[in-house]
Amino acid sequence: xxxxxxxxxxxxxxxxxxxxxxxxxxxxxxxxxxxxxxxxxxxxxxxxxxxxxxxxxxxxxxxxxxxxxxxxxxxxxxxxxxx
Length: 83
Description:
By secondary structure, the protein is mainly α. It has helices at residues 7-18, 25-54, 66-82. The longest helix has 30 residues, at 25-54.
C-alpha cells in the first residue's frame, strides 16, 4: 500500500522521526493509528455510558457514600474479571 500525505502531515511525521522520538515514518503512523483506535474505543464507551444514563442505569452517591462507592467499584471490577 502506498499513501500520499498532505505536506503538513508529512512534515509532522518527519519532525517526529528527526526528533528521535520514532525510528521510522512507519512507527509514527503505527502510533497514530493505535491512538485513533483508542479514541474510537473511548468514544464507544462514552456512548455506552450516555445511553445508560438516559436509561436511568446509574447509582447516585452522596458525600458520605465513599465506602459504598468504593465497594461497588471493587465489586464491578471483580464481576468484569469473572466474566
